[in-house]
Write a structure and sequence with these properties.
Blueprint (H helix, E strand, L loop, with lengths): L9 H12 L3 H14 L4 E7 L5 E6 L39 H7 L2 E7 L6 E7 L2 E8 L4 E7 L6 H4 L5 H18 L4 E6 L2 E5 L6 H9 L8 E7 L2 E7 L5 E2 L5 E5 L2 E3 L2 H10 L9 E2 L1 E6 L5 E2 L10 E2 L2 H16 L8 H5 L83 E6 L3 E5 L3 E6 H18 L5 E11 L2 H5 L1 H10 L3 E4 L4 E8 L4 H13 L10 H12 L11 H12 L14 E5 H7 L4
Parallel strand pairs: 1-7, 12-15
Antiparallel strand pairs: 1-2, 2-6, 3-4, 3-6, 4-5, 7-8, 9-10, 10-15, 11-14, 12-13, 16-17, 18-19, 19-20, 20-24, 21-23, 22-23
Helix pairs in contact: 1-3, 2-5, 5-6, 7-8, 10-14, 10-15, 13-14
Length: about 600
């Protein structure tokens, strides 16, 4: 039987196309809020009921839609943001396909109320399933309100795939939380089933926005990130190593103002925290990457959640460098209060769930003054700030460039690098902890963790160096290995030789060590080699530098002396070597090398404060 090819009727085609863009209520909220941002709004109110399945309202004070263009806005591929195919290479707005309103209207009851600054009255549209039922003039404030009811009323098959009200509202809360952080210079209010879930001040203070949305006191100690170079800029806040989670749920990324999922950025964060966290722990991260829009592709998925970078390695380097710089500042030094509430072994707390990360204290007013620009994030943000619309300014009908400039209140003094030269050594306690002070704080330095860090970096340095510096030993070290390890000797023998050891076959399952790295003592060298060989298992790829690094990390712990009382000169030498390390703040296993007590914390202990 031969099938007949036919062109689908418009209402059928619209429903099919709508399914590609509108998957669930959060899809509608996302499209409408992003349109409000692109329209220059500095105040946005979102209200939902029943997880958005029965009711969604988005109200903004943006530039509005002229009466004669209101119906055109609901036509498929109608957009004010793209004129030619060339424009796709430099997209700076959040919405651009021209499918959102058409797709939303195809599967809902839609009401639009909008007015521009120049018009005396606004326009009101009623649309059911893509059909315009009514178009009339109406009195309303400047801006746009869109009310969506009865999602998928005409496609009941899709209704069956919707989750519970709480699950759908949870996804919307996640999105609203993220977009409120992406635009701290916009005042957001989110209402769920008649209750104000959270509101932000819109004053451009990112940390304040984070605290308002997530309502977690531990976030007060987040460390600012602020780096800008030729590749772009990275700003935001990250947690000290003492605050971590068991999943990446608390890592939120923005690229040019858009909330994204990115394995590339995740790799940059992981690289930046390398050796600062235990395996299986993840930091809390709110990072904003701004880069040349021509160097990324946001048009790879209908929900625009994913981005593709032209040069992924450059982005990894940009992010990792920014994170490392932030973790190397005074603001990132682990304080004693962080240690006592360390969650290293704790399960994820209930308050981590999005439903509990809210602030209901602040109520949104519809007008405000925009904040002063505190810093320029990147050269690619050009004149965006000049076109930001104030409520009192004349709002042109033409959609302005993306209002994605995130005004972060990051003060430069907090980015001051930690300076070991400011420390004054005062002694040591328990043969383990070196004590030191600077002008405002007291420090306990774990001499063994510090030694471990120095030891590790020297070993890795030797492995990567073309010239090995070895020291002969008068009495060679004899070690024995299992026969299974003997079979793979050429692999681990080569890697040990690359680290500065001279190890030779000594018959049967024995080996002799005649030379060791110059910075090791004989007992350290013997312990290290034994543990290193023990960690070499069948199938271990010892040609991989990453694998070698992990083996060195595991083996270093055994090489560190415990409870050694050292002289003041030796302490000074230890700190001098520590400050020369690439990462002087933690041992290779992720433990801190030193902890800071502020003067205020000490005074509180003695009830002086």
């Amino acid at each position: 039987m031969q099938s007949m090819i036919r062109v689908l009727e418009k209402n059928v085609a619209d429903k099919i196309a709508a399914g590609e863009v509108i998957e669930r209520p959060v899809s509608i909220v996302k499209e409408l809020v992003e349109n409000s941002i692109d329209a220059g709004a500095d105040s946005i109110v979102v209200e939902i009921k029943n997880g958005g399945k029965s009711y969604i309202r988005v109200t903004d004070n943006g530039c509005g839609i002229p009466r004669n263009e209101a119906e055109v806005a609901f036509l498929r591929h109608a957009t004010s943001k793209i004129e030619t195919a060339k424009d796709l290479n430099a997209i700076e707005t959040l919405g651009f396909r021209g499918e959102a309103l058409a797709s939303i209207a195809a599967v809902t009851h839609t009401e639009l109320i909008s007015k521009t600054k120049d018009e005396k009255i606004g326009v009101k549209l009623l649309i059911h399933g893509s059909e315009v039922l009514d178009s009339s003039g109406t009195g309303c404030p400047d801006g746009t309100t869109i009310i969506i009811t009865d999602l998928f009323y005409n496609t009941p098959a899709r209704q069956k795939f919707l989750k519970s009200d709480s699950a759908e509202s949870g996804q919307i809360i996640d999105f609203m939380s993220q977009i409120a952080l992406a635009y701290p210079n916009i005042r957001f209010r989110f209402i769920n089933n008649g209750n104000v879930t959270f509101s932000t001040t819109g004053k451009g203070d990112l940390l304040n926005a984070i605290l308002s949305v997530y309502k977690l006191s531990e976030y007060k100690d987040l460390v600012p990130v602020n780096r800008c170079d030729d590749l772009g800029s990275v700003t935001g806040y990250i947690s000290k190593p003492s605050l971590s989670r068991t999943t990446r749920r608390n890592q939120i990324f923005f690229v040019n103002g858009r909330v994204v999922s990115s394995k590339v950025i995740e790799r940059g964060v992981t690289e930046g925290y390398k050796e600062r966290l235990f395996e299986g722990r993840y930091p809390v991260v709110f990072l904003f990457i701004h880069t040349d829009p021509e160097k990324l592709d946001v048009n790879i998925h209908p929900n625009k959640r994913e981005v593709r970078f032209d040069d992924e390695s450059q982005i990894v380097e940009l992010v990792s460098t920014a994170v490392k710089e932030a973790l190397g500042t005074k603001a990132a030094v682990i304080e004693v209060k962080n240690v006592f509430k360390d969650e290293t072994a704790a399960p994820v707390k209930r308050e981590d769930r999005a439903e509990n990360q809210v602030d209901i204290k602040q109520i949104l007013s519809t007008k405000r003054d925009l904040p002063q620009v505190k810093e320029t994030l990147a050269p690619y943000q050009h004149q965006a700030a000049q076109s930001e619309l104030q409520p009192s300014a004349k709002k042109e009908h033409k959609i302005p460039p993306m209002q994605g400039k995130t005004e972060l209140s990051i003060e430069k003094p907090f980015m001051q690098p930690f300076d070991f030269d400011e420390l004054e050594l005062t002694g040591a306690i328990f043969g383990t902890y070196i004590t030191a002070v600077d002008g405002k704080s007291f420090y306990l330095i774990d001499q063994h963790a510090a030694h471990e860090r120095i030891f590790y970096e020297k070993l890795v340095g030797e492995y990567l160096s073309s010239e090995k510096v070895r020291q002969p030993i008068l009495t060679p070290i004899i070690i024995e290995v299992p026969l299974s390890v003997k079979e793979n000797e050429y692999d681990w023998l080569d890697s040990l030789n690359e680290m500065g050891f001279t190890v030779e076959d000594f018959g049967q399952n024995s080996y002799v060590i005649r030379e060791i790295p110059t910075f090791m003592e004989i007992t350290e060298a013997e312990d290290f080699v034994k543990v290193y060989i023990d960690n070499v298992t069948e199938g271990t790829n010892l040609n991989n530098t990453v694998v070698i690094n992990k083996l060195i990390t595991k083996s270093c712990k055994s090489a560190i002396k415990a409870h050694d009382y050292i002289s003041m000169e030796e302490m000074k030498a230890l700190l001098d070597q520590l400050k020369r390390c690439k990462n002087p703040f933690s041992c290779p296993h992720g433990r801190p090398t030193f902890v800071k007590f502020s003067q205020y914390e000490i005074e509180r202990m003695f009830k002086r404060a």
